[in-house]
Amino acid sequence: MIGLNIKNGALYFNDTLISGSIGDVGLYARPNRDLYFNGEKIASGNINNPVGLYHSQSKIFFDGVEVGSGGGVDPDSEFSPEGYWIPPAQPANPTGKDWTYATIISKYDELMAVEPKLTKHRYNDGNGNAILSTVGNYELYHYVYEPEDYDKTLFLQAGIHGNEKDSRLTLYRMMQILFTLRNTNGYTAWQQIYNRCRLIIIPVVNPYGNDTSGMNIPYKSTQYGINANRNMDFNQQYGLAGAGVGGDVPFDINETRHIRDVVDLYGAENIDYAVDYHDGADIMQHYWINYGVDSPNRTLVNDFVQYLVRTYVPAGVTPIIPECKDNPATGIVMGYFAKSLGVTASTNEWIGGIWGYSFDSAHLTHSLAIRSNMLFIALNNDVKGWQVKESLDADYFHFDYPRAFTRDSIRKDEAGAETIVTDAKIRSRWDTLQAKFPALISKSIVLGVNATGDNVHSYTFGSGATKVLYVGGVMRYGGTHKIDEFAIYQLIEYLCSDYIVNQSSFLQDLRNNYTIIVLPFIDNSATNSAPYTGAGLNNAALSRQRWVIDSGTNKTIPASNEHGTGNYGVQIIKSIIDSNTDLKCIVSGGEITTGYGGNDQTEYTTEFQTHFVVPKNMIFDATDYANHLTVNRDENVVVENTKGFTFADYAYDHFNIPTYFVQLKVSNRWSELSADHGITSDAYLYSNYEAGRRMANIVNLFVN
User: Fold this and answer.
1) Cβ–Cβ < 8 Å for 194, 8
2) Which of these, 613, 593, 610, 608, lies nearest to 541 by C-alpha position?
3) pTM of this structure
């Protein structure tokens, strides 16, 4: 390097250290390219419009113009042609596999003495008391490294399975490199991590397992204990006792609650990439690095795995990498981040089954290449979730990587208790959201009671002049996937987030100018047995038709019997419509026409991916939107009219309120990405992309 430059808090001239003080000295530019002198900003710039004199990759620049080049090690020389960091040969560390939890924490504490920007945080309750491990009374810690001008936030954890010793050892080695070796030849690429990345680190998730070399944590009377990596809330595991049970409920132990609460402390929306480091001691595979199939890192991880195969798998050996993709694993940390939170994430494993556990130089060098490059992938690519990515001239709203539908939103009404979302859970979800944002969301008085005698309420977001209504819940007997009620919940939750709303003109319009009334559900079951025989807002089967067409006016009205005017659901929805005759439109989610035993299926098509059903007398010119979905979203769109026997017909016939029933089947994306996942089409309905489809239709029908 040449000229006057600042590096890691010390002042250099032509590689000569002239001031080793910790503070910032001299004239220099920070990574954001603001110009400073002795710690005081004297000019503003940015990464695309840099100012002042600064050093970058062995070259000297002034106001973005290269003015010289010099010696030193160019960080680029530390990378492969494909752009992956190539670690120098690592020292063997055979004793590292035996480090106790206390030893590991002490080593991180030693790093704090070297790096003042690294801080330690104990897991406490609201009164400052330590929340201890589920077994063993260990204090739980996370560390945060926060440089002044970071533009990435990475969440790193290891040791959720206590017998996976390489994971927490190599994570520590990465931190040791970052804080003590980044100015050493072979490691200077880490200066970019040091300057640009905030790191949130849980060194060991499962301290009891670490100290006993046990994968799981003792749990009730189970033989194998609880597997903490099955206790997260995306498809939380119930069975597979041989691998350790997943717990009675998600976040059933302090170790998994610790992960959840650390994320909540810093905000999922602020995390660019989360990596959960593991080992595969007995697994006969070469690599295991996965991703959420809808996440921005899918192709990046695939490319990296292929690089590892080319670099390390001997010629002529067929690579075994079946888990280097999204899979239906239940309750895992990667799924929690990538699906439940919409945060780009990976499980990253050292596979000892093939590569061994010698902890010699070759082992630890190879492991470091696998582990550390996740940081460089995050650093050098736009992998962040929580991005709407809306163009300024967008005609329609889309959000392709929102949070997926969690276990607590999957309502399949099947026999297994783990698949059912109760009415109480849905009400609690809405009540919790309303309590969190009372200035934005209000709860109605009791509108009536449902089939099981529970009070029915609606919720209202906003107070704009334009009023719309969303109706969820079951419409006819035998409904299968009633998940659209969660789509409207998630949309309202996003509308409460400045971070998301500020990225979309459509969401800004909804927040600023709309009043959104939501009836999450009246009933979520409709059967031919008590107490649900009266359920189903549009039921027309089994001589229990709710709505009829008046022969005199040719308008839809409630049937004049106990199934219509005497039906509690009809009374509730009719009252809402009658009290809000100025509605711009009504949208109702899914499952209005197909998939219902006891209802005639011949009157509607079953071949579609997006199905809009509108009132019998309503003309819906869906040409532009349908063409957009067909051409730009690769969807088969069908628009049909009802036969006149729905609450939509009542709203349109009497008050000219456009009403849309929207039904979705799985998109082509499921099959197009089949090489990158092992998920059934049924399960993919709850994915990030499919959740985004449901929200997009609601928004686009509301605002267009």
Assistant:
1) yes
2) 593
3) 0.87
Q: What is the pLDDT of residues 538-571, one digit of tens each?
A: 887 768 889 999 999 999 999 999 999 999 999 9
623 phi, psi to nearest 5 deg: -55, -50
**Mean pLDDT by groups of 10 residues along the chain of 704 residues:** 51 58 49 57 60 54 63 68 97 96 98 98 97 98 97 98 97 98 97 98 98 94 90 70 73 96 98 97 93 97 98 97 89 93 97 95 98 98 96 96 76 46 85 98 98 97 98 77 81 98 98 97 86 88 88 97 96 98 92 49 78 94 94 95 93 98 93 95 89 96 96
Burial 164-188 (b: 16+ CB within 10 A, else e): bbbbbbbbbbbbebbbeebbeebbb
Q: Which CATH architecture has domain 407-703?
A: 3-Layer(aba) Sandwich (3.40)
Residue 602's contacts (CB-CB under 8 Å, 6 or more residues apart) are none
Strand 40-43 to strand 53-56: parallel, antiparallel, or no bridges (unpaired)? Answer: unpaired
Q: CA distances (Å), 453 to each of 402, 450, 537, 568, in order? A: 35, 5, 16, 10
What is the DSSP secondary structure assignment for residue 476, as one 8-state letter? S
User: What residues contact 111, with CB distance under 8 A and at least 6 apart?
Assistant: 118, 175, 176, 179, 180
Domain range summary for the chain, segments of one domain joined by +: 4-71, 78-380, 407-703
Query: Cβ(329)–Cβ(292) under 8 Å?
Result: no
Eight-class DSSP state of 317: P
Q: Rounded to the nearest 5°, which phi and psi values hold at 416?
A: -70, 130
Residues 84-105 have pLDDT tens digits of 999 999 999 999 999 999 999 9
Q: Give the containing element (helix H, strand E) for 449.
A: strand 448-449
Q: List helix spans (H) across 36-183.
A: 101-114, 165-176
Which residues, including other chains, have CB under 8 Å from residue 18's CB and lie 6 or more apart? 11, 12
User: Cα-Cα-Cα-Cα dihedral of 206, 212, 215, 217, to 10°?
Assistant: -60
Q: Which residue bears the tokens 């209802």?
A: 599
H helices of 381-504, in order, are: 423-436, 484-495, 498-501
pLDDT of residue 475: 82
Rounded CA separation 364/170 (Å): 7
How far is 275 from 201, CA to CA, in rounded Å?
10
Same fold, 78-380 and 407-703: yes
Rounded CA-CA distance 588/392 in Å is 29
Q: Which two tokens stand for residue 340?
A: 């439940």
Residue 85: beta bridge partners? 79
Q: Percentage of the chain with pLDDT > 90? A: 71
Summarize pLDDT for 388-440 with one digit per residue, the tens. Answer: 999 999 999 999 999 998 755 554 444 444 446 678 888 999 999 999 999 99
CB contact at 8 A, 677 and 293: yes
Q: What span, in angstroms and rounded, lies between the C-alpha atoms of 587 and 559? A: 23
Write down the pLDDT at residue 57. Answer: 43
Kindly report the number of other CB atoms within 10 A of residue 319's CB atom: 17
* Cis amide leading into 402 (omega within 30): no
Superfamily (CATH) of domain 78-380:
Zn peptidases (3.40.630.10)
